[in-house]
Amino acid sequence: xxxxxxxxxxxxxxxxxxxxxxxxxxxxxxxxxxxxxxxxxxxxxxxxxxxxxxxxxxxxxxxxxxxxxxxxxxxxxxxxxxxxxxxxxxxxxxxxxxxxxxxxxxxxxxxxxxxxxxxxxxxxxxxxxxxxxxxxxxxxxxxxxxxxxxxxxxxxxxxxxxxxxxxxxxxxxxxxxxxxxxxxxxxx
Amino acid sequence: xxxxxxxxxxxxxxxxxxxxxxxxxxxxxxxxxxxxxxxxxxxxxxxxxxxxxxxxxxxxxxxxxxxxxxxxxxxxxxxxxxxxxxxxxxxxxxxxxxxxxxx
Lengths: 188, 103
Known about the structure:
Strand order of the largest sheet of chain B: 1-2-3-6-5-4
Largest sheet of chain A: 6 strands, antiparallel
Mean pLDDT of chain A: 89
Largest sheet of chain B: 6 strands, antiparallel, barrel
Distance between the termini of chain A: 35 Å
Structural class of chain B: mainly beta
Strand order of the largest sheet of chain A: 3-4-5-8-6-7
CATH class of chain B: Mainly Beta
Structural class of chain A: alpha+beta
Oligomer: heterodimer
Number of domains of chain A: 1
CATH class of chain A: Alpha Beta
Number of strands of chain A: 8
Low-confidence stretches of chain B: none
Shape of chain B: globular
CATH superfamily of chain B: predicted glycosyltransferase like domains
Order of helices and strands of chain A: EEEHHEEHHEEE
Low-confidence stretches of chain A: none
């Protein structure tokens, strides 16, 4: 396995890294462990990838704590077929998309971050919530999917009580691997 | 990754995130362009969620470099002062909290 096609954690290479994060985890440990994972190059800097993941994890941890949900949050990073894929699965109860300060399904490049809706959302939450986690993830990754899940792990439309968690899947095309050998013919 | 907190550019109310944090400086990634240049003094509200003993506080940041990319406007600067005496203790707590990451 070429290092450019794999993830590295604690000196071990693999195509998949799975982190199980307790809602009681010290956030410093989440920060540290995420920082320790070596991520293959994509068109986005690995710093931006880490911070997009971190913001989503922060939201998931908050939702679990608010709900008193003890199950782990699962973060999977996978490299396959030239793509880096990240999946975050939580049991935080989902959220009402209509309460976001923007249309969840809109192209993030068209959103006005100075809009009244954004400002009102942030004010109403004492600037402790920016409503930016999903926006940042959508801007960072080429591909973004969000599915609410019911108690049987089936996709479900948003409905309080029926939705028990969220699965967010993000992916980005990895940079082309460097050739292992290059050469030239001279004088032929 | 030595720090994580929400940040707000005071006055303009532009949201962002503290990335690296030390006693003397930090990086702040704002979600939109900030009209500042190297040498400017800006006030940034720091909002931490993970240490309950850390309430919001303001820092005065002397901008040293600006690194915009497709996603963020990242400002690096020196922390010239923390807004109040009590806030200095809070700031020290936050730095100490993240300095312990991974230990």
